[in-house]
Undecaprenyl-diphosphatase
Amino acid sequence: MDYGRIVEALFLGLVEGLTEFIPVSSTGHLLLLTHFLGFSTSGNTFEVLIQLGAILAILSVYAARLTNVALRLPTDPSARNFVIGVLIAFLPAAVIGALAHDFIKTVLFETPAVVCIALIIGGFALLWIDRRTIEPRHTDAMAYPWKLCLAIGFCQVLAMIPGVSRSGSTIGGALLLGCDKRSAAEFSFFLAMPTMAGAFAYDLYKNRDVITVDDLTVIAAGFIAAFIAGVFVVRSLLDFVSRHGFAPFAWWRILVGTVGLAALVLVG
């Protein structure tokens, strides 16, 4: 067993958990780190499969609330409206992600410069969105109308480009569509569950013949670290965003993208 790879996997899992739910692109961070560390798994599965830890982090934090929704589904129209809204928002990424899977994994995932440029452009876009004064019309993430959910779902498709950020595209889109910051971030949490679960299942199926026992070991290590870090972020992010907005994340994106481009020029 290569303990050095286990340590790297734990570190990368920690980064995944810390960045998955904030608008800085967890995949972008992982792709840049794995590139410079020389870390890889068969089929580039690590970056996708450790997201299961982040999914379980949401489930653990929102367990009581989600259980309550599940129990009310047969009798409460508002519970059904919420579940259907999340599924509607998930559909665009599900369809386009399946169609473009091979291109994303073999081209975009293998081009670190794309990640850096997307981080920088997304950072400036997030700064612009954060500084706009739009009177929010939607403040309850569990009561978003279906039309709004679908529009946010199409915004999420932008995150097929690594470095754009799934949470960044959904939160930014929700803010432009008239949602307040707290509910936009919370809806992004809920939308993450089917989106990441679908990506996990599809990527596991596509690479079922190439994943090795060693791959599973490092993926498990990354999964555990992602879960622990994800719980911390989910518990604290909403209050942070309510106080500080998204500007700190925007500047972080610009910094990481700029340093990444400089490193690519200097060391390749």
